[in-house]
Amino acid sequence: MEDMNLNDLQSVLDELKTKQDARVSADFKERVMQEARQHYGVTSSKNLRIGMYLKWSVAAMVALVCLVGMLTFQSTPLSAHSLLEMAIRNFKDIHTMVMDIDIRTRRQESFSYVTADDEFINHRIRVRYDEPMRWRVEKVPGRIACGEGNESCFWWTMHKVGYYKKGKPDSYLGYLSILLQPKEILQRELDHSLDSEGTEYTVRNEGDEIILTVHSRLTEEERSYRVLLNRAIETSENIRKYIFDKKTKRLKNLMVYMVVNGKQIEVIRTNRIVYNVEIGRATLLERPSDVKIDSLGWVSYPTSSLKNTSPEDAARMILQSMEKWDEAILKPVFGNIHDVMWKYFKGTKLLKVGKSFQEGSPNKHFIPYTIELPDGKVRNGNIVLHKKKDAWTFDGGL
Amino acid sequence: MNFRNKKQQQLDILEKLVEANQDYLFRFAYFRVGSREVAEDIVQNVFLKLIENCIDLALMKSPRMYLFRMVSNRCIDYQRREVIHQVPLDEVKGLMDENEEETALRQEYERIVALLDDIPFEQAEVIRMNTIDNLSFVEIAEILDLSVSTVKSRFMYGVNKVRAKLNGFKKED
């Protein structure tokens, strides 16, 4: 950073200050209070009076239910709100974290793919909350993402290659990057609790633990724009369970359940979360010994020839090109892992391509496929394609 | 406390919260969404959510910071939605009909947007919070859930970039 003297700083700050006062409209407060009074079924702010006819209205009933909830909630040991607040405060003294977590996904899928249909795959997450944060996620076996600040690496040990790019943890982890910072998960829950239509919160004590259960039934719009772990899973109805240590109020474990056809299916569960254990800084960015340093490249998505097509057509074109290995199509798609992919997939036959779906980010598409590998084995999966500047590039799933 | 008193207590606290924070929150929202109508809607909805979601206002420890955080989240949601939504014709018409004061405010918004346009979002946000919303570094750290030192360094990096940009303008002049 260049040095800046005080005069310089002051002149920049002067430029950034607003010269124009911004105030709400004169009737703003009255509008808010009018709405609030209507919500409570009250006709005047200073002389509270429940109108006779409103006694039986839906609005009054809703208000009553709310108030009963509010008054009785205080008799429980802790409200969800207070519990989350305390747990968040307790992160102040946390410098490192190790989380062993099982996620229902597939070995070959990207980190952000979660499904109710597959087996649990174990992930180990280790983080040092230095400035900048340094982290490592190992998806057993063979997929490791790690990074520091604005740089991320991905070690793909099965194919002995590595990627490196400028980008925050979500570059490789997608929405699951939030697992690196449980405090952030709790903060979002706390924010959401202030704005949470259709969400139920229950808090109960069990031995040495306090269990907070959040049952969300989000609309599609809310799902697109809001809550944390929902965005990484396939259904909008889900249950998130947080287990806190009663004494320290620290988060000990978390679970996420999808609700599919009324049935709860556990899709994410931690086996343990431990804090402030010794984690060597260097170990977090360690390169697996079988990944050669010369395989590393700055990954900027190669310009793909697959432009202006649907994700299904792009997937079909890529997978069909593998049988005779059409380099003109596949080289730009696979970039610096082209040679590795050629070795494993040349001769692969496409059997079927299904309807695409989106997860993780607006530009990321998962396209179900069935292929026959060169050794005759049939594989089902979801090829992940990333859309950048109207061109499709490969992002995993094989 | 009976229901009636509880309701009155909620309304009284809400009224005080609105009085104390409405202009700050509006300014915060306005300089992120650039529309009086949208900014007032966002702030109004945030106040009303406190009541609708049965939050006991008497128990809230730092409502001001919550309100800022909620308004901030809603502005981000709005900005995300606006990327894909078209501006309705009547909104454009509204801009054309606005009075002098409103025009000056909108021009001020556009001036700030132009200054912070190519600054990384995280740095621009800290700068806006400090210089426009008059929030202290400690308050910003609380709202964004960052350490104070991170907030300060983002601020200084951002300000440096603004300075470089202003110097560029001067040279061009």
Notes on the structure:
The complex is a heterodimer of chains A (398) and B (173). Chain A is α+β, with helices and mostly antiparallel strands. Chain A folds into three domains: 27-73, no CATH class; 76-300, Lipoprotein localisation LolA/LolB/LppX (outer membrane lipoprotein receptor (LolB), chain A); 311-394, Nuclear Transport Factor 2, Chain: A (Roll). Chain A has helices spanning 6-16, 28-40, 58-73, 80-89, 170-173, 182-193, 220-225, 281-284, 311-324, 327-334, 338-345; strands spanning 96-104, 120-128, 134-139, 143-148, 151-156, 161-166, 199-206, 209-217, 237-245, 251-260, 263-275, 297-298, 349-353, 357-358, 364-372, 378-388, 391-394. Chain A has a twelve-stranded mixed beta sheet. In chain A, strands 13, 14, 15, 16 and 17 form a five-stranded antiparallel beta sheet that branches. Mean pLDDT of chain A is 75; it is low at 44-77, 221-235 and 294-303. Chain B has 173 residues and is mainly α. Chain B has two domains: 1-85, Rna Polymerase Sigma Factor, Chain: A (Orthogonal Bundle); 118-173, Arc Repressor Mutant, subunit A (Orthogonal Bundle). Helix content of chain B is 82%, strand content 0%. Chain B has helices spanning 3-33, 36-52, 63-84, 89-97, 100-116, 121-132, 137-144, 148-172. In chain B, α1 runs antiparallel to α2 (36-52), α3 (63-84) crosses α7 and α6 crosses α8. Chain B starts with a helix and ends with a helix. Chains A and B meet through α1, α2, α3, α4 and α6 of A and α1, α2, α3, α5 and α6 of B.
